[in-house]
Amino acid sequence: MTTAVCFKCGAFKIGAFVPCSKCGAAPLSEDDMVMSFVVTDHHFDLNALKEIGLRISRGDPPKVDPKTRIDVLQMMRQTGSVFDAMRKTNEKLTTPKPKPADKAASQGKPWWQFWKKQPDEVNAAILELDKIENAFPDFEVDLISTSVRDRIKTEPEKVVHSIRVDGMTPKALVYLVITNVLDRELSSGRFHVYRGLLSGSGENLLRLWDHAVDELLKSGNHSEEDAAKDKKWIREQIRNVG
Ligand SMILES: [Zn+2]
Description:
Blueprint: E1 3-5, E2 12-14, H1 30-38, H2 46-57, H3 66-79, H4 82-93, H5 120-135, H6 142-154, H7 156-165, H8 170-186, E3 192-194, E4 197-198, H9 200-218, H10 224-240
Helix pairs in contact: 3-7, 5-6, 5-7, 5-8, 6-8, 8-9, 9-10
Bound molecules: zinc ion.
C-alpha cells in the first residue's frame, strides 16, 4: 500500500492515484499524475510527506524538476499502468491549458529534493551486492563492484522498474547488472594478458559471469537457452580482444 499526499489539498491518502477522500480531487492531467506519484512514501519518509502535505495545503506545492518529471512520465508510460487509462479519459474531458512558465524550476534545487530518499529497491539491491561480494571472494567481485554500485545508484528508476514492475528480485537484478558490467569489462582487454587470453583476475571474472548467468537461470529471468547463449557469447568476445 502506498501512503500518498493529495496533490490538491495535502491530505494523506492511501494510493497515489485514487480520489482524495477529503477534497475529492483525483489526478487527471500529466502534471497532477507526476506530482501524485512523486509525493508518496516511495520517495519520501513520513515526516517529509507531512511537511509536503502542510505546504500543499498552504498553496505551496513542491516543484518537480524537469528531469524527475521526464523520468516519472517515462516510467509510468513503460508500465502501461492506470496512468494511460486515466489520461485517455482525461483527454476526452478536458482541453489542455497552456502551461505557465515555471519560474521556480530555474531557481536551483527544488526544496522538496532535500528530503528525497533513495528508493527502497536501490537500498535492497546495494545490500544484495554487498552479500554477493562477501560470499564469493574468489570471483574478485571487488574489481567491478564500484561500477555495479554506480549503475544501481545512478539509474534508480530502472532499478525500481525492474523490481516493482518486472517483478525481479533485488538479487536477480544485481546479477543482471553484474553481467552488464562484465560484458564491458571482459571485452575491454583490461583483463587480458594476450589477445584471447585472460589474466588470472580475468579468469575469476569469467567464473563470476558464469555464476551470474546460472543465478539468472535459477531465478527464472533466463531460459536454459539464454544461459547457454550468454556463456558462449562472452567467450567469443574474450577470444577476439586483448
Ligand atoms: Zn485532497
